[in-house]
Structure formats: C-alpha cells, structure tokens
Write a structure and sequence with these properties.
By secondary structure, the protein is mainly α. It has twelve helices and four strands. Helix 2 packs antiparallel against helix 4 and helix 7 packs across helix 11.
Length: about 325
C-alpha cells in the first residue's frame, strides 16, 4: 500500500514538473495563427508598398535632378550631383545611375524599406512556426533553419540602415532586439526540445514584442508612401473632375482601412505572444478549442480583408 501511495505521489510530482517545464502548446498555436493572419493581410500591402516606394524615390530623384540642372543653367550652385538630361521640367531622364539607387530602379526584388518590413514579417512568421514545431516535434529542424535564415536577412537589412523613402524603420531598440533574436535562432537550431523552447520564450519576451511593435509602428510611414501619389494628384489638380476626385479619395480610404486592419492584426499577435509568455511562466488554461475559435475569427477577418483588397485592385470602390 505504501509503495502504491509513494508511486502515486511520485507520478503527481512528475506531472507537475512536466507542466512547469513544457512549452505552452495551445498558446503557441494561437500565436502562430495570429502571425499567419498578419502575413496574409500584409503581403499584398507590401507588394503595393514596393511599387509606391520605387515611384516615390524616382519622383524625388527626378525633381532633384531637374532642380540642380536648372540651378546650374542659371549660374547657381546646385544642391547635389543629380542632373537632368532633356527638356527642363519636361521629357528627359536622370543622367547618372548610381549603385546606391539600383535597388529602387530595379524591377525585381523589393526596394530597401519594403525589404526590411517583409524580412521582419518573415522572421516573426518563421519564429512562430519554429516554436510550434519544437513543442510537437514535427519538422523542428527545418523550421529552425528557416528562422536562422530569416533573422540573418533581417539583421543585414537593419545593419544597412533600411528606411522607407527617408523614414528610418529600424530604431536602435529594434536593432538590439534583432541581434538578440539572432542568438535565439541559433539556440533553437542547436537545442531541439520543448523544454528549451519554454526557456527561450521567457528569455526573448521583449525582443519578439519589439519586432512586432516595429512592424506596427511602420504603418504610418506605409500610409504616407502608399498615398503619396494620390496626395500629389489631388492637391496639384484643384479642378479635377468630381468622379476622378471621388475615385482617388476612395482609393486612399481603402488603404487607410487595410492598413488599420493590418495594425489591429499585429496588436492581436502581440497579445497572443503575451499569452504564450504568461503560459510559459505559469501553465495556463487555454485549450485547443479556444485556439480553434480564434482561428474561426481570423478566417472571418481575413475574408473581409481579402474582399477589401480585391475591391482595391479592381477599382470597384465605393466613393
């Protein structure tokens, strides 16, 4: 009888220890699903942002070149080295092709600011998948390899001082968080077990939240770049026909709504990460049913966002 009682007590202790050392499976799935929603909503916006970033850069470069050539023609000191070949303020092209401008001039890949944001989103996506893979033991090695590559790309972009047409995207705090996440990626790759995943969640609470906050804080700059052509068009054409004006305003409002949806999804992912951290400290009560319920809500949200994106691309917007 004593042996049986001892065995029962020992089993209870083992279960308690397992609960304290295991990674929070349900909470991590909630975090992964929340991040996946950001990715689905964000990728089309980043595609548009790449086009807008290039257009804004080229417009700025053209204006500088025209202004410098005009100043030189008047015998004044130009503000820079850019020069315009062609008619003043008319048909022509920028004289030089500089190495530092080629990422903006290219038709492949992303320009620097968009590349930084896409890499940031890729990193947090890879992180969420790697942590879930560690807890359930499936494809953990491949998932952590993806994370190592993603963090390396993001670190390189941050070190290069990526900005969105002059607006810095990687603050000092975010750069520090990225560097620490590089260490997280290496440790995940070296130690493929659920207990270590729990420890790494606790060690990197601030860094992951900082990365998500960096993506969210970039939304106002994304709005400015995405609507820059609309702002120029509207302010420069005071006699624009009302139908064209309404269409331009409707397009701007569509971007306002989609970017706001994107920011809300990021905030939800931050909440989900906070839940995973809390559960890693103290095993929580989140069930797989709750994860499924959240997934249903995310599907409904993403369907609404998909319809809004389709309307934006087709031009079928309510003025």
């Amino acid at each position: 009888m004593r042996n049986s009682a001892t065995a029962g007590l020992f089993g209870t202790v083992l279960l308690a220890l397992a609960a304290c050392t295991a990674a929070p499976s349900a909470e991590l799935r909630l975090f992964r699903d929340s991040v996946a929603a950001i990715d689905q909503a964000g990728q089309p916006l980043l595609d548009d942002l790449a086009l807008a970033e290039r257009a804004a850069f080229r417009t700025s470069l053209r204006e500088k070149a025209q202004a410098n050539s005009a100043a030189e023609a008047r015998g004044r000191v130009p503000a820079g080295d850019e020069r315009w070949i062609g008619r003043p303020l008319g048909i022509g092209f920028v004289r030089d092709l500089r190495a530092e401008d080629m990422a903006f001039e290219a038709s492949i890949g992303d320009p620097p600011g968009t590349a930084a944001l896409r890499a940031g989103l890729g990193t947090v996506t890879a992180l969420s998948s790697a942590l879930v893979a560690l807890t359930d033991g499936t494809n953990a090695e491949a998932a952590t390899d993806d994370l190592v590559r993603s963090v390396a790309a993001l670190t390189d972009l941050a070190a290069a001082g990526a900005s969105l047409v002059g607006t810095p995207l990687a603050t000092t705090g975010l750069k520090a968080a990225i560097e620490e996440l590089r260490g997280l990626a290496r440790r995940l790759a070296d130690e493929l077990n659920a207990r270590r995943a729990r420890e790494l969640i606790l060690e990197n609470e601030r860094q992951v939240d900082a990365l998500l906050a960096g993506l969210r804080d970039a939304v106002p700059a994304m709005w400015t770049v995405l609507t820059s052509d609309l702002q120029i068009t509207i302010t420069a054409n005071l006699r624009m026909p009302e139908t064209e004006l309404r269409a331009a305003v409707a397009r701007a409002e569509a971007y306002r709504r989609l970017l706001s949806d994107y920011a809300v999804l990021i905030a939800r992912a931050q909440d989900a990460w906070g839940g995973a951290v809390l559960a890693a400290r103290t095993p929580g009560s989140l069930t797989l049913a709750a994860v499924a319920e959240n997934a249903t809500r995310l599907r409904a949200d993403l369907e609404a966002i998909r319809r809004a994106q389709a309307a934006l691309r087709s031009g079928q917007l309510n003025p």
